[in-house]
């Protein structure tokens, strides 16, 4: 059913400022800047080996702008959504309907102001029983594409390593992400010294990391943070510091054969980790 983490969405009030900040963090320029005419929103996209990042902002009057403004009013700039990719949205709709979830297929399009190219897609907005009240939807792209990610610079971000979701109910995520969406559950482990249960769902070389916190004050699930992979964290660290981005010293990661550093500024309030997998 679900074949990829198609893209990650960060809601921002000032799109141009967010573009400038993320070009510094990622080391690449946005490959798309455009508008969703029917929604009233505008966006910028950064493409990677396994997914893309969307910075989404209100613009003109429309339902999309109303929705994004409601998100910004509640949390300010933040990690707002995940789009799950499918290769056949008609089959996905049928499967969801058979599972008792009434869903419909919608459509959308956007125009790139850089070259006036158009991209079109079909999508399914999910009921709360499947989204767990997060901004999560399913998408199939039908026309147009983004320029392929190409970079030989070891300091630049090449892919999304993982996205983190906090919850109080890991079992519910298993029943949805593994049993309904058919995403592989690669890890289900309790970290004793954290007193946390950790789930890894993996698809298209991307991990959805779900952290269960039973003592979490807020009961609602939360899209929390992102981890970006680079070929050389030392080179990336130097690049960030030279761009006046605040970043912690490099250290060994919790996972064996990894090095990590935390980016502390320019992230639009998204907890952000930089990671290198050692060979």
How would you characterize this protein structure?
The chain has helices spanning 15-26, 63-75, 89-98, 128-131, 170-178, 233-242; strands at 4-11, 32-36, 41-47, 52-58, 78-85, 106-112, 118-125, 135-143, 159-167, 184-191, 196-203, 206-212, 222-229, 251-252, 258-263, 272-277. The chain is globular. With 279 residues, it is of the alpha+beta class. It has an eight-stranded mixed barrel with strand order 1-4-3-2-6-7-8-5. The chain has an eight-stranded mixed β-sheet with strand order 10-11-12-9-13-16-15-14. Strand 2 and strand 3 (41-47) form a beta hairpin. The protein is built from six helices and 16 strands.
- The number of helical runs is 6
Shape: globular
The portion of residues forming beta strands comes to: 35-45%
Which secondary-structure class do the elements indicate? alpha+beta
Order of helices and strands: EHEEEHEHEEHEEHEEEEHEEE
What's the overall average pLDDT, rounded?
95
Question: Order of strands across the widest beta sheet?
Answer: 1-4-3-2-6-7-8-5
Determine the N-to-C terminus distance.
Answer: 32 Å
Most strands sheet: 8 strands, mixed, barrel
Percent helix, as a range, is 10-25%
Which value, in Å, is the CA radius of gyration? 18 Å
Low-confidence residue ranges: none
Number of strands: 16
Q: What features would you highlight for this structure?
A:
single chain; 279 residues; alpha+beta; eight-stranded mixed β-barrel; eight-stranded mixed beta sheet; 6 helices
């Amino acid at each position: 059913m679900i074949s990829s983490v198609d893209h990650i969405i960060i809601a921002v009030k000032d799109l141009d400022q967010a573009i400038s900040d993320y070009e510094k963090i990622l080391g690449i320029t946005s490959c798309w800047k455009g508008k969703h005419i029917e929604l009233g929103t505008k966006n910028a996209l950064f493409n990677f080996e396994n997914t893309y990042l969307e910075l989404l902002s209100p613009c003109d009057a429309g339902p999309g702008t109303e929705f994004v403004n409601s998100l910004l009013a509640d949390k300010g700039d933040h990690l707002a959504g995940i789009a799950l990719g499918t290769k056949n949205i008609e089959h996905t709709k049928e499967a969801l309907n058979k599972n008792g979830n009434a869903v419909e297929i919608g459509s959308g399009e956007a125009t790139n102001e850089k070259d006036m190219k158009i991209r079109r897609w079909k999508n399914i907005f999910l009921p709360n029983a499947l989204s767990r009240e997060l901004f999560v939807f399913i998408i199939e792209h039908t026309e147009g594409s983004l320029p392929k990610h190409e970079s030989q610079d070891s300091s630049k971000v090449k892919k999304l390593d993982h996205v983190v979701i906090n919850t109080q109910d890991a079992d519910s995520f298993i029943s949805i992400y593994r049993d309904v969406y058919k995403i592989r559950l690669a890890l289900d482990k309790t970290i004793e010294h954290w007193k946390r249960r950790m789930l890894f769902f993996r698809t298209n070389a991307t991990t959805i990391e779900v952290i269960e916190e039973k003592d979490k004050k807020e009961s609602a699930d939360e899209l929390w943070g992102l981890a970006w992979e680079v070929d050389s964290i030392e080179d990336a660290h130097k690049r960030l510091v030279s761009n006046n981005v605040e970043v912690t010293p490099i250290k060994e990661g919790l996972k064996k054969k990894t090095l990590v550093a935390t980016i502390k500024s320019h992230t639009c309030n998204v907890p952000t980790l930089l990671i290198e997998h050692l060979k």
